[in-house]
Amino acid sequence: MAVTKHRIVSGEESEIHDEPHIEGSRVTVLHVHERVEERGLRPETVADRLNLDLADVYEALAYYHRNPEEMQSVEAHRQAVAEGSETLEKPE
Q: For 67-81, b where at least 16 C-beta lie within 10 A, e where not — what string?
């Protein structure tokens, strides 16, 4: 049985995201956290829906809780981007 080992890639190391994500995918740590801890989905459900190993989901959750300052910064950045996009004028 082949074992796939994923690790979390930080936003600084990533070539595809400006926030931590699961290596080999575009799924971010914050996305996993939101699904499991804010929406109440089971980790198994998230793994199935996102085509991840269950270990990847738990690794993302562990990363989120081990790096609270970094994750708060990611959330603040997302909020600022969302607020900035709301102030743009819509084309006619």
A: beebbeebeeeeeee
Summarize pLDDT for 1-34 with one digit per residue, the tens. 556 555 899 888 888 888 999 998 999 999 999 9
Domain boundaries, the chain: 8-84
Cα(74)–Cα(64) distance, integer angstroms? 11
Would the pTM count as exceeding 0.85?
no
Q: Following DSSP, what letter does each residue of 1-54 receive, concatenated? A: -------EEPTTT-SS-SS-EETTS--BHHHHHIIIIIS---HHHHHHHHT--H
